[in-house]
Specification:
six-stranded parallel β-sheet; DNA-binding; Rossmann fold; homodimer; six-stranded mixed β-sheet; 13 helices; elongated; 434 Repressor (Amino-terminal Domain); 356 residues; alpha/beta
Chain lengths: 356, 356
DNA sequence: CTGTTAGCGCTTTCAT
DNA sequence: ATGAAAGCGCTAACAG
């Protein structure tokens, strides 16, 4: 167990000063080829791990990072992502950071366009994006590319853009997993209802499309023939949902299972509970407060979690470490798909990974 | 957004020097009641969060921590716990730590006694224990109590001891969860096989007993009557296992599901695969390398993970922060019970939480 | 009992 | 282009 190697040690070994080593490590220039080579030779030999907390301590400049995501509601998915982002900021408490958050209505493409146009003009060092609308996101990304501002996606990747990285679950596999779980709960060859959200501008979110594809592919590969039925649903005009649901469950009173591939599973769970329909198995998505409650009450059977806190945390942390410490970045980052039930939900810590 | 408050700020507000504030913060004594009150008054007002990385930077003394657990095999449960411990050490890279690891044979009570007697005499600042044998563990703990050395359990708590904390899954609920999963996979009113490990000294590990109790309680609460059958199994004398298994599956050729409540599920999975028995559903425990492989091959249907890396990480981190920064400690810490399937295993990162 | 000082590893500034 | 020196927030050693 040898002692940890420090900049001072490298300097001594290379026959230069600590300042020069620092200049080499950070590519700050003003180093003669000879000195650079000497330092690089030493660096090859030793296992130098900079102590980034100490490093942050002596950093002078301030950084500005902009965050844009769908609007944040308490207890819901996007709030968790923002929690994670905030924690990453706290983990580097001695960095001088300014963070600006701009959110848009994820069910209204025009809201998104407006916010993204504003962001395109802002001063910043880096951008974190929670994308919803494919083309609008790519338009923003192009502007960022021109301005040489790095950006990272959370929640899902946006095909066609060149992010520094993305942190997302594998939505296709998420759909597959939901299909596997629901089919393990219901009889062979039966009906399955799936909820489908309607959006202003009539564009489905990319993630939902992928989930549905994963779901349908799994179903169609089974020997048993399930009949998948769509349940219409609108987040923006909730007054119609009662009607939609009631019509659906009247037409299909024998339906044994429902899958909800957005985070609104609790709407259906409540509907069923209020109408004393207790024999419908449910597999739902995201650990929003109401979904967790429905799980604990036994209204939902399986809930899939996508580690939103962790996504936000890693996105922010990765960005900071790239920006400030030039740490190399993995572009593709898929997070866990957690399976929660009545039995294990109690131990699920949202900040498991993050909190000290 | 106000600036972060530092010791120097507190000193100024209280009208004392930084040294005095430090003495108050760490209860080092040598502070007049008047000064102490002044500082404490300020501390009540402001939200002071010490930067522990900076703090570690200037710490002089070295700490010695002893770890004792069952023997470590590559790719298995206890190795993961040790990984986690090592990571916590790396997270506080600038602390001066000496770590000594002593392991024992978890299937042999005499091995455990010998190692624990040795530990009881060693010099150390703190101890982390992975317990197996209840009484032997408590004997060691009593010695530690006398010597005023704090200790933390990983993997399970040991009733009767007074640990600073424990990091464990809820073994009872783990059994319950396994019961729920296996019953969701097999027909009503059928047989279920469960594997039971035999130990030298004939003492079951506490965790296994709890798991089995959780399992049986769930089964007996169901309307459907399952018949639970025990499959004998020995880790220490593996040459008999083939016979045990073959006898069992011959006698019960119609068995639709098997649950393994220790980490050796892959033994059964391999046996079934080698003998071309493909219609037995399996719910197993722990993400050992061979279990994960069996899950990926479809031989195991559900695998339960107990976050061993996280347990080790948190145990070590908690100990360090208690020892060095006097950080208050939560005694009871239950970790997640992760449900893994063929679909989501690929995204499961053992060091999710830990790795930077 | 208390304030001052030096130093942890790193970055930045300032002479050279 | 480079080394020396100051300073980040904190603790430890020292002088009073």
């Amino acid at each position: 167990m040898q002692k940890k190697i420090r900049i001072k040690d490298i300097a001594r070994l290379a026959g230069v000063s600590a300042g020069t080593v620092d200049r080499v490590l950070h590519n700050r220039g003003n180093v003669s080829p000879k000195a650079r080579q000497a330092v690089e030779a030493v660096l090859k030999e030793v296992d130098y791990k900079p102590n980034i907390h100490v490093s942050a301590l002596s950093l002078k400049r301030t950084y500005k990072i902009v965050i844009t995501t769908p609007n944040i509601s308490p207890g819901e998915y996007w709030e968790s992502i923002h929690h994670g982002i905030r924690h990453a900021k706290e983990a580097y408490a001695n960095l001088k950071l300014t963070i600006e958050v701009l959110t848009y209505n994820q069910y209204d493409i025009f809201s998104c366009m407006k916010v993204f146009r504003q962001i395109a003009e802002m001063e910043m060092d880096a951008l974190i994006i929670g994308p919803t609308f494919h083309n609008e996101t790519n338009a923003l990304c192009e502007k960022m590319d021109e301005r040489n501002i790095p950006y990272i996606f959370v929640d899902s990747n946006n095909e066609g853009a060149c992010p520094l990285a993305f942190f997302s679950s594998d939505h296709y596999m998420c759909g597959t997993l939901m299909a596997k779980l629901i089919t393990s709960l219901i009889p062979a060859n039966s009906k399955i209802g799936i909820l489908q959200a309607v959006r202003v501008g009539n564009q489905s979110a990319n993630s939902t499309i992928l989930r549905k594809r994963g779901f349908m592919d799994y179903i169609s590969k089974q020997e048993r023939a399930y009949q998948v039925l769509r349940i219409p649903f609108s987040v923006e005009e909730p007054e119609n949902n009662e009607t939609y649901l009631s019509r659906f469950f009247t037409d299909h009173h024998d339906i044994p299972g429902v899958v909800v591939m957005n985070s609104r599973g609790n709407y259906v769970a409540s509907y069923l509970d209020n109408n004393h329909i207790h024999d419908v198995k449910m597999v739902c998505l995201d650990l929003t407060a109401p979904n967790v409650e429905a799980l604990k009450k036994g209204q939902i059977d399986f809930l899939i979690g996508q580690e939103p806190e962790y996504q936000g945390f890693r996105a922010m942390k990765t960005m900071l470490e790239y920006l400030i410490f030039k740490k190399p970045v993995n572009r593709e980052n898929y997070v866990q798909l957690d399976i929660l039930t009545l039995e294990n939900i109690g131990f699920y810590k949202r900040f498991n990974n993050i909190l000290s």
